[in-house]
Amino acid sequence: MENFLEIKQLSRKEILYIIKKTGKIKNKPEKYFTNLFNNTLLMFFEAPSLRTRVSFETGMNQLGGKAIYYDISTNPLGRGKETIEDTAKVVSKYCDIVALRIYSHSELLKFVQNSTIPVINMMTNEEHPCQILGDLFTIMEMKKKFNKITISYLGDSNNNVTNSLIYACSILDIPLKIGCPKLQEFNVRDLVKIFENPEKAVKDADVVYTDSWMSYRIPKNQEERRVKILKPYQINENLMRLANEDTIFMHCLPALRGQEVTREVIDGKQSVVFEQAENRLHVQKTIMLSLLGRLWIA
Description:
Blueprint: H1 12-27, E1 40-45, H2 51-62, E2 66-71, H3 84-94, E3 97-101, H4 105-114, E4 119-123, H5 129-143, E5 151-154, H6 160-172, E6 176-179, E7 192-195, H7 198-202, E8 207-210, H8 223-230, H9 237-242, E9 248-251, H10 263-266, H11 273-291
Parallel strand pairs: 1-2, 1-3, 3-4, 5-6, 5-8, 6-7, 8-9
């Protein structure tokens, strides 16, 4: 890979390679402590972040490199005083790798076209590829396989997480059932089934996944309406009983208990949300090492 931008750009072989290498890095992190010595990661943030910022900074530090956080709202790019094309050309002279968490996917692609160093998509409105690779690694850890499992995703499905999940399941031939209001529209691929009925969507699932109903850009005056529309898709104990007995519950966080998921589920024995959050760190190490050609240790 020259850059890491979209799940839909990856092959099955590339996804499985990243997952396999991530397992080695997670199990023996000390073997990689100096692999990115004297390398610098620059991170541009337009969207707020906890897990993304901390996991990337920690990952780069644990690999022997340095990470720089840059808030777009405080610099010339965010204030319309400098183009994204010029920004990409300048930072390519200073750093070894750059990551962006911005809303516009087209702006990300403009940056890539003008960058001479590897670029990582930390999130755009269209895709959240680091999140989904971390999720896939978590599923492999917990289930030991991708074949003969079904993933159910319920709730707000018109978002970047759902998009990346659809692409990943299509590439890996994993059946995906999505439960969402009929008014939501998105591209559907093979192996993906849409259900307006949440009970049908979750039945016999091996993985039950949801996300926040309130993304960072939802206006305050729309929140009450969204809760009313999405309430039937809340993950609760009754819905979880319809899934398989050994089903795991996933959520990319942040979560609002009592909204998209009940406290009993997210804090219950089937929940792997914190393992899922941890695995962002490990999979992002693999991505950075791969892009910089430093994944030496088998």
